[in-house]
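New to this. Comment on this protein:
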Amino acid sequence: MSERSTVGVRELNQRTSAVLKRVRDGERITVTEHGKPVAYLVPVQPGTGLLDRLVAAGQAVAPTRTGPVAMPPDWGDADVDVAAELVAAREEERW
């Protein structure tokens, strides 16, 4: 669809589910406030999420399993400051 449909903020507020269904179905919608465009609603294209972009750039690895992730064994110790360990790990990742 080359031309975008227009929906006012009031209609978007009152019919959010219906408008989002139109977007899911591929429609591109301009949201207006007092007749002036303020936002565009467009369908999400597969492969455009943050993880997808990071994987494509070689900066991340997609998960290979689902479900809860086990904490490293030493973090279960009462003597380990988990917050400090996370901060240290993040500092290492920056360099």
